[in-house]
Amino acid sequence: MDMQWLEDVLILLEEGNMSRAAARRNITQPAFSRRIRSFETWLGTEILARGSNHIEIDPALLANEDEIRALIERIRELKSRIARYDPAGSVVEMAAQHALISSVFPDIALHARQVLPALRVRLRPGNRSECVSMFLRGDTGMLLAHETDLTGSMPFDASVRREVWGRDQLIPVVGGQIRHRLRADGTVPEDTPAIVYPAQSSFGQALSAARCPFGTVEHARHPVCETAFSNGIHEMVRRGLGVGWLPQAMCVADLEAGRLRALGPGYGQIGLQITLYARREDRSAELLLDQLVSPPRPRREV
Predict the structure, then answer these.
(1) Within the chain, which residues score under 50 in pLDDT?
(2) Less crowded by CB within 10 Å, the N or C end of the chain?
């Protein structure tokens, strides 16, 4: 279909007359009539009832005048975006876990701004399963997620590229008044309250597999809250609600300030990888990932 046919139809709707419409398009009436015929052939139906001395416009066309205007505008915008497209100046949609937005994404954003100042990142936050769903649906071109050493990487196909931004570790911490229950060897009584992860969550699966105390309901004698929301666990631990397992990068400042204390090595720790995924078909996402993993860059190692 030629876009000028849509413009012809719009002028015809405005004028309601073939001669005046042809004059506005600066062509002869027969030529204008042929273009309207071409549009009808493409459409598969006639839009004009032609009499010997007059024409009548089909009511279906009149009813869709606003849509025709909008379609013409969208096509013009599309042509402009394609003509001016620059992957370094585009917007990248990134699904990111809540915990990583506060602890890791600022480093990513700063590095991206240095190497690709015209590119913008639009964050789509969620828990890990929500972020993976957004990425799988194609709602985002990138995914920022934690992966544990125990559960491994996500099984995407070859259309998805995976890179490791850095490493972290999941550790048990306490805060508030519960800090005073911490013994010299870094342990706490077994009946200490715990904020636990659901067994089906990504952290919950790893903690359950490693049989980590206070990590999930089955390994906590006194669970007071169950949630997959690490930021929520962080705040509840700080307020002294119970023991909680958190990525160390999330609580570095609190540990250094003494607001949180890590439990002893006897409870173990879970190794984490901070991973970035990008759709290979998304040129802007691929470009950003190239720049993020190319040295020199800030390394997130905890």
Answers:
(1) none
(2) N
Q: What's the CA gap between 261 and 60, in Å, rounded?
A: 71
3-83 matches 168-271 in fold = no
Domain ranges of the chain: 3-83, 87-166+273-301, 168-271
Beta strands in 127-242 (DSSP E): 142-148, 160-175, 193-196, 222-226
Q: Name the CATH topology of 168-271.
A: D-Maltodextrin-Binding Protein; domain 2 (3.40.190)
Contact predicate 166/100, CB 8 Å: no
In this prediction, residue 290 carries a pLDDT of 92
What distance in Å separates the CA atoms of residue 33 and residue 236, rounded to the nearest whole number? 73
Q: Are 147 and 134 in contact (CB under 8 A)?
A: no
pLDDT confidence of residue 17: 87
* Coil, helix or strand at residue 181: helix
Give percent of the chain above pLDDT 90.
61
- The string of pLDDT tens digits covering residues 5-25 is 889 999 998 888 889 999 999
The predicted pLDDT at position 73 comes to: 85
pLDDT of residue 118: 84
φ/ψ bin of 245: left (φ > 0), alpha (ψ from -120 to 50), beta (otherwise): beta
The residues that bridge with 145 in the sheet, in sequence order, are: 275
- CATH for the stretch 87-166+273-301: 3.40.190.10
As a whole number of angstroms, the distance between CA 217 and CA 229 comes to: 15
Measured distance CA(92)–CA(121) in Å, rounded: 5
Architecture per CATH, 3-83 = Orthogonal Bundle (1.10)
Cα–Cα distances (Å) from 266 to 137, 239, 263, in that order, read 41, 24, 8
